[in-house]
Amino acid sequence: MTEAKRIDGTDFSAKLRETLALHVSELRDRHRVIPGLAVVLVGKDPASQVYVRTKHKRTTEIGMTSFMHTLPDDTPEDEVLTLIAGLNADPAVHGILVQLPLPKHIDTQKVIEAIDPAKDVDGFHPVNVGRLAAGIDAMVPCTPLGSLMLLKDHLGKLGGLDAVVVGRSNIVGKPMAQLLIKESCTVTVAHSQTRDLADVVRRADIVVAAVGRPEMIRGDWLKPGCTVIDVGINRVELPDGTTRLVGDVNYAEAVQVAGAITPVPGGVGPMTIACLLRNTLVACCRLHHLPVPNV
Ligand code: GUN
């Protein structure tokens, strides 16, 4: 059997960022508007620091303005809420992202709900969650949006396909299921209490793995020829003491069975930041009552 096609998120996201850069320069030249993204990081979580640095770099690279707010670990909740109120009112800021997880003394939901839904480029505010569930225009969370772009690029129309989403988080699993329903897939959401998970996954034409457990999904769980989107990014230690990034799917096995699969790294990961920039551009156009580009 031939090996699965490798769905290249690095390449796709680079092209998307090039397209976004063209729209940004047009906005600047024709309308004197520069999209601005504010990122708030509270504390020193090492993974979050890396993500936030990359977001800053990618934002400025395409000509947007990046506003970075790095706050100490013990910042009181009130101070974070006051900062968000200021960003909501700032006309130069079109997108606001508060990096998660937040320190334990801060109520994450309260912070999410403090963000103006029009600037909620993460799509986590209940207004956007509800709009997505209702199938109307919403800010869509970046990782599921990027995953859907890769799926449509590979498969074209998704209508009628059986999709299994493994994982029910608010950030990935639930919004992914909503997006696939909107594409007329038959969607199953599986999770830690699903019985006979392998049997459920085996029915799927599309598998989206978002459980955060290294290489949990095995090759013999897959329907031959299916398309696998691996959202997992897990760092595992090897016997020689070095570390390596792996997904939620056992790639070496899956590549022998699937029709196409996203690698880790280089699959969904780079799509997330590109979609954050896409959402910031869309928010900016809407806030300025300008036509929203079809990206
Ligand atoms: N932490 C991990 N993923 C995300 C994300 O998509 N958005 C935010 N704000 N924080 C995260």
Summarize the model shown.
The protein has 295 residues and is of the alpha/beta class. Helix content is 41%, strand content 16%.
- CATH architectural label of the largest domain: 3-Layer(aba) Sandwich
Mean pLDDT: 98
Q: What's the tally of helices?
A: 10
Which small-molecule species are bound to the chains here? guanine
Keywords:
2 domains, binds guanine, 295 residues, alpha/beta, Rossmann fold, 41% helix, three-stranded parallel β-sheet, globular
Report on this model:
By secondary structure, this protein is α/β, with parallel strands linked by helices. The protein folds into 2 domains: 32-118, 3-Layer(aba) Sandwich (Rossmann fold), CATH 3.40.50.10860; 142-270, 3-Layer(aba) Sandwich (Rossmann fold). Helices cover 41% and strands 16% of the residues. The protein is built from 10 helices and 11 strands. It has helices spanning 9-31, 46-61, 77-89, 108-114, 126-133, 142-155, 173-182, 197-202, 251-254, 269-287, and strands at 5-6, 36-42, 65-71, 95-98, 162-166, 186-190, 206-209, 227-230, 234-237, 243-246, 260-261. Strands 1-11-8-7-5-6 form a 6-stranded parallel sheet. α2 (46-61) links the parallel β2 (36-42) and β3. α1 (9-31) packs parallel to α10, α6 (142-155) packs across α7 (173-182) and α6 packs across α10 (269-287). It is globular, with a radius of gyration of 19 Å. 44% of the residues are buried. The model has no long low-confidence stretch (mean pLDDT 98). Bound molecules: guanine. Residues 97-100, 122, 142-143, 171 line the site of guanine.
